[in-house]
């Protein structure tokens, strides 16, 4: 037998014989954008809301029952609000799901409405993965399945809100596990002669 193992980091190894072994189940699902877990906000925004206590830091502070982040007054419908995050030490991760928490204050009057999640491996080229609409009443949050897609960056895009005065979000959660680039992603064993 001849076995070729292709790793996520692009390297490969060739072995004589058949390889088998236990899968690595030590991975723990965590909120990858939470600063305590190494999540890092990457893009620049106006400091307008930072000075008023509704800054972007509130999007990933682990508190889901607060106003959190607020846009500047009269956000531009033509230019969506975008938030780019990387994970601990720039490592890639496997994304399970994203939970976006709207704002319950004033019965969701200022909550964001249309949202999208995009991913990237390099922080420049982003691909759409999922999108949805936050409910104005009731649960106030949505969960978007990421299907274990691998990424090093995630972008939250807020495209609209329920009120043109402000758009607000309580919390942005990205659940996943760190990708181990030394685990094989493709294993091929030749048939016996």
Biggest sheet architecture? 5 strands, antiparallel
- Give the averaged pLDDT, no decimals: 79
Percent helix: under 10%
Give the DSSP E fraction (strand runs of 2 or more residues). 35-45%
Q: Any low-confidence stretches, pLDDT <50, length ≥5?
A: 16-26, 186-190
Please describe what this structure looks like.
The structure is a single chain. With 193 residues, this protein is mainly beta. The chain has no helices and 14 strands. A 5-stranded antiparallel β-sheet has the order 4-6-11-8-9, with no helix packed on it. Strands 3-13-7-10 form a 4-stranded antiparallel β-sheet, with no helix packed on it. The radius of gyration is 20 Å and the shape is globular.
Present the secondary structure layout.
Elements (H helix, E strand, L loop, with lengths): L1 E6 L4 E5 L13 E2 L8 E2 L27 E2 L10 E6 L6 E9 L12 E7 L6 E7 L7 E11 L1 E6 L9 E2 L1 E8 L5 E6 L4
Antiparallel strand pairs: 1-2, 1-14, 3-13, 4-6, 5-12, 6-11, 7-10, 7-13, 8-9, 8-11
């Amino acid at each position: 037998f001849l076995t070729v193992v292709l790793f996520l980091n692009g390297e490969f190894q060739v072995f004589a014989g058949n390889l088998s072994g236990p899968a690595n189940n030590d991975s723990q699902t965590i909120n990858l954008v939470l600063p305590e877990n190494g999540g890092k906000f990457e893009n620049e925004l106006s400091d307008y809301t930072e000075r008023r206590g509704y800054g972007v830091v509130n999007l990933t502070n682990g508190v889901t029952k607060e106003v959190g982040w607020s846009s500047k007054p009269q956000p531009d419908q033509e230019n969506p609000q975008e938030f780019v995050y990387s994970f601990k030490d720039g490592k890639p991760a496997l994304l399970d799901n994203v939970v976006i928490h709207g704002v319950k204050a004033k019965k969701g009057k200022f909550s964001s409405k249309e949202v999208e999640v995009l991913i990237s491996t390099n922080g420049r080229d982003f691909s759409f993965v999922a999108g949805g609409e936050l409910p104005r009443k009731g649960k106030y949050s949505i969960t978007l399945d990421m299907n274990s897609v691998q990424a090093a960056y995630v972008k939250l895009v807020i495209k609209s809100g329920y009120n043109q005065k402000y758009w607000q979000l309580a919390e942005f959660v990205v659940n996943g596990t760190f990708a181990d680039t030394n685990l094989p992603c493709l294993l091929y064993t030749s048939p016996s002669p």
